[in-house]
Amino acid sequence: MVFVTILLGLMPSFLMVGLGGVVRTRLSVDAWQGLDKLNFEILFPTLIFVAASGRPIALADVVTIGPAVWAILCAGAALGYLSRRFGPERFVDFAGAWQTAWRFNTAMAFVAVMTLPTPPLGLLAVAVGMAIPMANVFAVTALSRGSGNFLTTLTRVIRNPFLIASVAGVTVGLTGLHIPTVIMAPLEMLAQAAIPVALISVGATMNWGALTRLNRFSGIICATKLVILPMLTFALCWLFKADGPLAATLVLFAALPTASAAHVLASGFGADRELAATLVAQSTLLSALSLPVWITVITLAF
Predict the structure, then answer these.
(1) For residues 139 and 137, what is the distance between their CA atoms, to the nearest angstrom?
(2) Is residue 267 pLDDT above 90, yes or no?
(3) Which own/partner pairs from 6-11 qualify as long-range (CB within 8 Å, at least 24 positions apart)?
(4) What is the CATH number of domain 2-301?
(5) Average pLDDT over residues 44-63
(6) Where are the domains of the chain?
(7) Can you tell me the distance from the alpha carbon of 287 to that of 282, in angstroms, rounded to the nearest whole number?
(8) Which of 88-97, 150-159, 270-279, 288-297 is the least confident region?
(9) Residue 16 to residues 13, 43, 50, 187, 201: CA-CA distances in angstroms?
């Protein structure tokens, strides 16, 4: 019964993705790219800032969550590398696909957390905020190996709107500053638009036939992201008796599908864009099965 309730809770979001697939031809490719740009530059950074700044954050939470999510990212990178022998010969092509083993879908994070009985929204915002820079640095490091442009790209990572919004939101949460309602009200309106726009855009640009191209290489990557990482995180939270909201946040974070724009970064470094895009689609589609299971486990265990 719990699983059905959670599945029904996630169903509107998956239907929004499906709607994107239905209406994809109603807008041009440039229009969808424009929506992605709007979401990346304005809507999602606003959502992250509002979520992180909307409630007090204890310094202990930052100190605890930061190393925990970094460890999850490191585990994803290490386990994902086991697929190297089955992947493409060129390392940059492999790196473009490899990054999907640890990067995460921020939109799905904020959708999934609301299906929990007591959503740890503040903790999730801290987790996302601490994980974004590390996940991007890992990806850039792998993709730029031997290209000589690491410093230039690292500068772009530091200027990432998600990173800036995360740092700003966590700072406000830590200091307890009160932002006037006249300023927060429009920010909250923008934040509310982020998730539906992102979900429709994902559906419009997704390769819906990607599951037919699942092979040993992509299977290892997807299994790492959707099964092994959350399983390992759950086991460690159980072993160390982590606090319920913290454990729920970490397991949910580990169970997220990969970042929907991973193929964009891969393409920017000359990696195989189609391979990365296929893995994004496979991870997203398979998460429709795996994510409700993990949310059920979280609900029953924590």
Answers:
(1) 5
(2) no
(3) 6/115, 6/292, 6/295, 6/296, 6/299, 7/292, 9/114, 9/115, 10/111, 10/112, 10/115, 10/288, 10/291, 10/292, 10/295
(4) 1.20.1530.20
(5) 84
(6) 2-301
(7) 8
(8) 150-159
(9) 5, 17, 23, 23, 9
